[in-house]
């Protein structure tokens, strides 16, 4: 429950602090600003800026949600193509490809959480199997198809690395982090009548500002450490692909079954 409501609890706690500060300032007569039409203009402008940044960040987040499915499907397609090719051209080591694909999937699952590059290296190591396929007489168009899938894996890895490390429009992010605190301070030091109605409006607006700002910060890095946030992109499809490759029979198991 704490993980599920992490952003809510964080925002609620800060909002409660803001309400307490505004109440204290009101009691001591320290609300030094008078309400005017400029206040609504400032609040509207702040909503517009954080809404713009949120919509832009969500587009990357949605793309990130598609990445595990794309990556897993390419991994399984490579193995299925290699397996069908091996039935006609058994001169290359199919088990080596299976183990390398397993290594790629496991490395990718780990890399996206920890911002490492072992999956990129593992993908390039597939090239050794392509050389074996050429020596085994596999037609060039078969090998080219699998190489294209290898390039697709590399492209997915690069895209994840970019999304994880690069902020969307850093200047806009700085602007949001600047105007949100100033807008909240403006509401805190403004005398709003009736007081309790103004206090409720200040609390609501502050909660929305804080919640969206925190949400943008979380989803801008969609692949968080496992279990850190509920909004983390799930890697269960990659885990299922790893389990699928584990179930595939190895060469030794195939030989034993033929012997029986």
Report on this model:
This protein is mainly alpha-helical. It has one domain. It has ten helices and two strands; from the N terminus they run H-E-H-H-H-H-H-H-E-H-H-H. The chain has helices spanning 6-27, 37-88, 94-114, 118-124, 127-135, 140-165, 170-188, 195-219, 236-247, 251-259, and strands at 33-34, 190-191. A two-stranded parallel ribbon has the order 1-2. Helix 2 (37-88) packs parallel to helix 8. The longest helix has 52 residues, at 37-88. The radius of gyration is 27 Å and the shape is elongated. The two termini are 53 Å apart.
Task: Reconstruct the topology from this structure.
Blueprint: H1 6-27, E1 33-34, H2 37-88, H3 94-114, H4 118-124, H5 127-135, H6 140-165, H7 170-188, E2 190-191, H8 195-219, H9 236-247, H10 251-259
Parallel strand pairs: 1-2
Helix pairs in contact: 1-8, 2-3, 2-6, 2-7, 2-8, 2-9, 3-4, 3-9, 4-6, 7-8
Tally of DSSP β-strands:
2
Output mean pLDDT: 87
CA-based gyration radius? 27 Å
The N- and C-terminal alpha carbons lie at a distance of 53 Å
Major sheet strand order: 1-2
H and E order:
HEHHHHHHEHHH
**Coarse morphology:** elongated
Question: Number of helical segments?
Answer: 10
Unreliable stretches: 252-260
SS-derived structural category: mainly alpha
Main attributes of the structure:
2 strands, 78% helix, mainly alpha
TL;DR of this structure?
With about 260 residues, the protein is mainly α. The protein is built from ten helices and two strands.
């Amino acid at each position: 429950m704490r993980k599920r409501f992490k952003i809510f609890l964080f925002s609620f706690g800060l909002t409660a602090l803001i309400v307490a500060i505004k109440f204290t300032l009101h009691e001591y007569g320290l609300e030094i600003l008078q309400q005017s039409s400029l206040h609504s203009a400032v609040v509207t402008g702040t909503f517009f800026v954080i809404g713009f940044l949120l919509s832009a960040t969500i587009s990357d987040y949605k793309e990130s949600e598609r990445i595990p499915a794309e990556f897993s499907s390419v991994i399984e397609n490579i193995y299925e193509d290699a397996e069908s090719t091996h039935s006609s051209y058994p001169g290359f080591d199919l088990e080596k490809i299976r183990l390398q694909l397993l290594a790629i999937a496991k490395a990718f699952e780990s890399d996206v959480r920890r911002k490492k590059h072992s999956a990129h290296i593992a993908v390039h190591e597939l090239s050794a199997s392509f050389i074996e396929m050429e020596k085994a007489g596999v037609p060039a168009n078969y090998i080219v198809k699998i190489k294209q899938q290898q390039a697709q894996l590399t492209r997915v890895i690069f895209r994840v690395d970019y999304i994880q490390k690069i902020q969307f429009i850093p200047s806009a992010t700085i602007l949001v982090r600047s105007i949100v605190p100033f807008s909240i301070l403006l509401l805190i030091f403004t005398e709003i009548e009736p007081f309790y109605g103004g206090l409720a409006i200040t609390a609501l607006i502050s909660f929305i500002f804080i919640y969206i700002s925190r949400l943008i910060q979380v989803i801008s890095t969609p692949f968080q450490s496992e279990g850190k946030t509920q909004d983390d992109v799930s890697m269960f499809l990659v885990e299922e692909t790893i389990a699928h490759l584990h179930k595939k029979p190895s060469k030794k198991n195939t030989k034993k079954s033929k012997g029986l």
